[in-house]
Amino acid sequence: MTKTKKKNRKDSKGKVLRTGESERSNGTYMYRYVPKIRGRSVNSPEKKDNRITIYAKTLPELRQKELQITQDIIEEIDTVNGNKTVASMTKLYIDLKKNLHFTTRESYRSVYRCHIKDSWFGEMYIKDVTKTDVILFYNEITEDLTNSFLENVHRIIHGCFDLALENHWIRFNPTQNVMRLYPANVPERQPYTKEQENLLLNFVKNDGTYYIYYPLIICFLETMLRASEMFGLTWSNIDFINNTITVDHQVLYTRYEGKYQFIASKVKTKAGNRVIPLTQRAKKAFLYQRKQQISLNRQPTIQVGSYSDFVFTTRSGRPYTVPNVDKYFSRLIKAYNRKEAALAKKEGRDPISLPHLTCHVLRHTGCSNFCKLFYKERLDIKILQKWMGHASIEITMEIYNHATEADQEDALKAIEQARQKLCL
């Protein structure tokens, strides 16, 4: 018994159709196939039928698309998951980052909500995104925000496409090397000089409005704590007998679980968990703060996590927050500069203005001051690294080298002057 040969299917123009190809009633064409990677079908959780259908106006156009599909299969590209949008891929990437500190996670989610979720870029399929699309999207962001903020956005977007690349959902990461077009535009933070520090402290100590910040400024300069660590300090963290400060947590006012609230957490790194010395200057400042807290009736009124009895509190008894303190510091500097300008005009001299002041500038100034002391006394820089809470010695060395540049220049001048006297 002979087998009958199967007739080739043809379209209305007489062209032979291949397996999976068919002509539609309106004269256009479609191709159906089951996507495979390594010989196995790719399952789509959204569909029970795993077959994919593509369409084209002409048969040559359809076959060009079929060639692309074949290439995807050869290169093991998952075309099903390649149809994820950038927004859904970004959300998946953030959800998979289980080891993120909660503040970092909330920062990532904020970027997703505000800049990716409902944007034209977020609606694109990851397989269709080109480097040009990324640049156009980044250009839109930098119209209103800094390149430094863009680095935060890029960190998430780049990670999102890296995840897709590792899963064979795309061929390449379109964000690769894009940030070379956007150099950081944040000016280097300069610590206060000793003269500026003395002018600041003298003004604050004797001002009727800003005197309450005098002990806080001293404590920043002497302890080199981060703002979240400083504002999370409780009186039990300070040992006035053994002269130590235990830093084992931080308090922030941030968006968490859909609303802004005070959150207490452990410090981000092991290096941040530390016990630092309480200098005599810092000890006097903390004791002054305790008296001030009682006399101004600023006793702590809330508990954050398992922490209460905070050292630095507002009139309502709540812990200080970085944005509010930085705002008051800004007003403080404006008040000083106005007073100094008027006094300089009266005395017929140039005013000695003070630059912008923030909590971070104070910490940076404290770090710089201690770096200079360690340099002059030839002390072990590893000790300073521990006090500062740096996970890497490189970070400490960067501040150390910057802080000692002026001292090295002074030393060079002294050598040159000595040589001239000796006629060398």
Strand and helix map with partners:
Layout: E1 21-23, E2 29-33, E3 36-37, E4 40-41, E5 52-56, H1 59-74, H2 86-96, H3 102-116, H4 131-144, H5 147-166, H6 194-206, H7 214-223, H8 227-230, E6 238-239, E7 244-247, E8 250-256, E9 259-265, E10 274-277, H9 280-295, H10 322-347, H11 359-377, H12 381-388, H13 393-422
Antiparallel strand pairs: 1-2, 2-5, 3-4, 6-7, 7-10, 8-9
Explain what you see.
The protein is mostly helical and 424 residues long. The chain contains 13 helices and 10 strands. A 3-stranded antiparallel β-sheet has the order 1-2-5, covered by helices on one side. Strand 8 and strand 9 (259-265) form a beta hairpin.
User: What gross morphology would you assign?
Assistant: elongated
Work out the strand percent. Answer: 5-15%
The percent of residues in helical segments reads 40-55%
The number of E-state strands comes to 10
Question: Main sheet: which strands, in order across?
Answer: 1-2-5
How many DSSP helices? 13
Integer average pLDDT: 85
Please identify the structural class as seen in this structure.
Answer: mainly alpha
* Poorly predicted tracts of residues: none
Rg measurement, Å: 32 Å
Tell me the span between the first and last alpha carbons.
115 Å
Q: Name the helix and strand elements from N-terminus to C-terminus, one letter apiece.
A: EEEEEHHHHHHHHEEEEEHHHHH
Largest sheet features: 3 strands, antiparallel
Salient structural properties:
single chain, 424 residues, mainly alpha, three-stranded antiparallel beta sheet, 13 helices
Brief sketch in words of this structure:
The protein is elongated. It is mainly α and 424 residues long. The protein is built from 13 helices and ten strands.
